[in-house]
Amino acid sequence: MAFFIKRLAVVGVGLIGGSFAQALREQDLVGEVVGVARSQKTLDKARELGVIDRGTLDVQQGVIGANFVLVAPPVCAIVPMVQQFAPALTRGAVVTDAGSVKSSIVHACEQAMPDGCYFIGSHPIAGRERSGVEAAFPALFQGSRTILTPTPRTAPAALEMVRVVWEACGSQVETMAADHHDRVLAATSHLPHLMAYNVVKTLSDLEQDIQAEVFRYAASGFRDFTRIASSDPTMWRDICLENRDAISEILQRFRRDLDELLALVSQGDATALHAMFSRSRDTRERVLRENKVLRNP
Q1: pTM (2 decimals)?
Q2: Which of 6, 88, 255, 282 is most deeply packed, by most CB within 10 A?
Q3: Domains of the chain, each with CATH number or no CATH
Q4: Closest CA to 97 of 17, 14, 185
Q5: pLDDT of residue 130
């Protein structure tokens, strides 16, 4: 059979990379899957689960002969990884990533590509609070959105190949400029995660007697709001480092809004509080009506 992707290299065999490989296998679009990871234990588990056919700890060996490469480690590792394996790429190879920060990554990775090889920035907006190849499953991207961030240097054929691959995984593909992507995601993804981590920190820093009571009586509101605080700390540390400008900007805005809320509570301004809560509720309900992805988590 002439597979669309004869050899797929997955650099970073975790939730995203593993789910990507499984989704393409289900569609019979990939021949051989080669996994690259930092530990032999991860590679052994990936083979046991049928996610990869073979694996290696050597990233250059892993990409040899691959006509499509997905790079899916934590975002701080993407550029060093690509720069390390780029000289070993086969001419015609298309490389994409899965990082949730794009501007710095796309610029550096495009520069690293040898002649005849292509890098396209990707961000699949899908995931779970649990990580690792054990959490991977082929339907992860069904109904999700994936953002591609082409540049003036992007080859149309390479862009189309990346689009087709993500659509085959079940994702709706859109394109936008990398710097715009980083500002949008700082607001819609990075801010909520940081708030969830910070709420847990605030509660855990309370005096011990109060803390015990707080967590003893924690209910569904605590559970639902803080669910994403179970996400991989390394991943979120790296996102903050890589997207620090856009995240700082949105945190400053959130702090101004929080100061406004504090003032309204302190003043006992019932009318203004009700207006704020009503507006926020109406906005959330409108977004849920318009976004079927959010209606079906």
Answers
A1: 0.86
A2: 88
A3: 5-176 (3.40.50.720), 180-295 (1.10.3660.10)
A4: 17
A5: 74
